[in-house]
Design a protein that fits this description.
Blueprint (H helix, E strand, L loop, with lengths): L11 E5 L20 E2 L2 E2 H11 L4 E6 L4 H6 L4 H10 L2 H12 L2 E6 L6 H6 L2 H4 L4 E4 L3 E3 L6 H11 L2 E7 L9 E7 L9 E2 L2 E2 L5 E9 L10 E9 L2 H7 L11 H10 L8 E5 L4 E3 L3 H14 L4 H15 L1
Parallel strand pairs: 1-4, 1-6, 4-5, 8-14
Antiparallel strand pairs: 2-3, 6-13, 7-15, 8-13, 9-12, 10-11, 12-14
Helix pairs in contact: 3-4, 8-9, 10-11
């Protein structure tokens, strides 16, 4: 979207939640993985909060036929609200109303899951000819280290797409999409911050190529793509003709690689912002447990007591 002085503003976020969550079976047989609690909130609420905190107040969730609970979570529950009001339980009442008030939330069903690229393509009619953000629910970004505002600023300055990158050990790069990068044009990252810390000029890069889950020996770097994107609307045109790739799915990485290959074309060009903050991976069981422990230990209301118990528990394991 462009304001009345010709400056591009980004207001829409897309959050794909149609995956089957097979890594968390049997819990996800009836409960969407996005609704699994991380301390006392479902993972999806953290993600919507992040989008809203970055000024993205129009949020589209790409759902599937087993995700009705996600849709219900962002709706009012009059009977429960009335019961809490009668009890005078204002704290719990506020907690269940908060998700409803975070943003203007919309839903569209993906149908048969055909990969992240296809999920993004399902947002085309809602997004229109505007830049938009994509947030994946497996990556929770600590609210103290927001990366989306910097990514949005880079997209507004360049007119291209922006991906979040994370340095990972070389032996783990085969688990991620991987970026080949070079220095970004001068001024691209000037004055940007991540949380309260300024971003180094070397932390904003131009993406030359992308490879989905490369073998270690073939990886062009140790910079992995994590689940935050700000995309130009030209990505839809590319996704329309992107053939199924790895795993028989339409890969967003393949479409971004095409946009990166022709940076001079309007709406093309891909840039990266290297994330150096706190991130919690809820993508598998062990990392999910680590995320719960880390977030609980940092809570003002739970942290002190939980840390005391944790020290004693760990000491007893030796």
């Amino acid at each position: 979207m462009w304001d009345n002085v010709g400056y591009m503003t980004i207001e829409k976020a897309v959050i794909p939640v149609a995956g089957l969550g097979t890594r968390f079976l049997p819990a996800t047989k009836t409960t969407p993985k996005e609704m699994l609690p991380v301390v006392d909130k479902p993972a999806i609420e953290y993600v919507v909060e992040e989008a809203a905190g970055a000024g993205l107040d129009d949020v589209l969730l790409i759902t599937g036929r087993t995700k009705r609970a996600v849709e219900d979570y962002f709706d009012n529950v009059p009977e429960l609200e009335e019961a809490l009001e009668k009890k005078g339980d204002s704290g719990r009442l506020a907690s269940i109303r908060q998700p409803v008030d975070l943003a203007n939330i919309h839903f569209v069903r993906q149908g048969k899951p055909r990969g992240l690229g296809h999920a993004v393509l399902c947002a085309r009619h809602h997004v229109g000819n505007e830049h938009f953000a994509v947030l994946l629910g497996d990556d929770l970004i600590d609210e103290r280290d927001p990366i989306l505002p910097a990514m949005i600023e880079v997209a507004e300055r360049t007119g291209g797409s922006v991906i979040a990158l994370l340095e990972v050990p070389a032996e783990q790069i085969h688990l991620y999409g991987c970026a080949k990068v070079s220095a970004a044009p001068a001024g691209t990252g000037d004055g940007l911050t991540m949380g309260t810390e300024p971003i180094a000029s070397t932390d904003v890069v131009q993406v030359e190529a992308l490879v989905e889950k490369p073998a270690v020996e073939d990886a062009p770097s140790n910079l992995a793509i994590i689940g935050r994107y700000v995309l130009s609307p030209q990505v839809f045109e590319v996704l329309e003709k992107t053939a199924p790739g790895r795993g028989g799915e339409i890969q967003l990485t393949d479409a971004l690689a095409e946009l990166a290959a022709d940076p001079q074309k309007p709406g093309h060009g891909v840039y990266g912002v290297v994330f150096r903050g706190r991130r919690y991976d809820t993508g598998d069981k062990l990392d999910y447990l680590k995320a719960v422990v880390q977030l609980a230990a940092d809570r003002d209301d739970l942290g002190e007591g939980f840390r005391d118990w944790l020290h004693g528990y760990v000491a007893g394991l030796k």
